[in-house]
Amino acid sequence: MKIKEIFSTSLKQKINTVFGSKKDRKEILEELEEILVLSDISIDLVGRILQNLEKKIKTGFEKEDFIAVLKEEIRDIFSAVNIAKEELPGNKNIILLVGVNGSGKTTTAAKLGDYYRNRGKKVLFAAADTFRAAGGSQLVQWGERLGLPVISGDRGADPGSVVYNSLMSFNSKDFDILIIDTAGRVQTKDNLMKELEKLSKIIKKVVPGGAAQVLLVIDATMGQNTLDQARKFKEFSGITGIVLAKIDGTARGGTVVNIVDEMKIPVKFLGTGEKAGDILEFSPDEFIDSLLS
Ligand SMILES: Nc1nc2c(ncn2[C@@H]2O[C@H](COP(=O)(O)OP(=O)(O)OP(=O)(O)O)[C@@H](O)[C@H]2O)c(=O)[nH]1
Ligand SMILES: [Mg+2]
């Protein structure tokens, strides 16, 4: 699946309809505001975009001008957080997946394992979700399906010990990437957030300078709640990137823009379905093109 196929109802088509008949500037702006809000761009961000638009386009109001300014605004939001296509930073890399319950962490872990394996990396999984009954076994099943090794623990076991064991294995064998799945948690549950800090500490201790990527997995289908999910994790400082899962369930691309604008953290991957291969590396240019072409 390509980014273009996801956002099939192009924003540009809707924008075209606004400029179809003669209207005054105020009417056009009102209709554009509605279209942007309906594409899931947050009201706050729409307000800012339109303000900038009014500043930049002083007279007349042609469709092409509007689209150019809109593209520029969205591009600015992405480039402010420097979403560069980056290779993994070191030889041995650790990816820790975090997020609220059911956001898509375990599935994303499996997808990333498959993704990097297909790029020649030796992958190890750690099933550090010992909280839920099926938490660990779900990743174990993925491991079996994909033919990739998984370090897991019993239900109720200390996730820290699972992570520690996986790091030992990761260090002693020639693995390139360790992908750690964790239990779903909300920020209001203090103990679970503390546990996350603890897992980070263990990683830093066992693999000094270990370039741990912490990816926040967010369910993209929840509209405004998607943004709330992201906010809940804002205080957990270690997050280095975002995975927007279930993007196949929303044709409205505004969510991607909101998240980056709110979190100031780059979106790295999009989840596009339930299968191992349903993952896309995020490209801002491709995204803007598919949304506005
Ligand atoms: N359509 C679609 N479904 C997805 C995607 N990613 C995950 N899912 C589904 O979402 C549900 C939850 O996914 P999980 O990976 O179990 O989510 P989780 O965050 O590990 O859940 P907890 O461990 O309970 O917190 C499953 O039914 C997945 O198949 C996606 O990109 N697209
Ligand atoms: Mg899970």
Concise structural overview:
The chain is of the alpha/beta class. It has twelve helices and eight strands.
Description of the molecule:
- The chain has 293 residues and is α/β, with parallel strands linked by helices.
- It folds into 2 domains: 78 residues, Up-down Bundle (Four Helix Bundle (Hemerythrin (Met), subunit A)); 190 residues, Rossmann fold (3-Layer(aba) Sandwich).
- It contains 12 helices and 8 strands.
- It has an 8-stranded mixed sheet with strand order 3-2-4-1-5-6-7-8, sandwiched between helices.
- Helix 4 packs across helix 5.
- The longest helix is centred in the N-terminal third of the chain and has 18 residues.
- The mean pLDDT is 85.
- Bound molecules: guanosine-5'-triphosphate (GTP) and magnesium ion.
- The site of guanosine-5'-triphosphate has 21 residues, from helix 6.
**Helix count?**
12
Number of domains: 2
- Total number of beta strands: 8
- State the fourth-level CATH superfamily of the largest domain: P-loop containing nucleotide triphosphate hydrolases
> Largest sheet, if any?
8 strands, mixed
Q: In which range does the helix fraction lie?
A: 40-55%
Helix and strand content put the structural class at: alpha/beta
Instruction: State the order of secondary-structure elements, H for helix, E for strand.
Output: HHHHHEHEHEHEHEHEHEEH
User: Which small molecules are bound?
Assistant: guanosine-5'-triphosphate, magnesium ion
Stretches where pLDDT is under 50 for at least 5 consecutive residues are: none
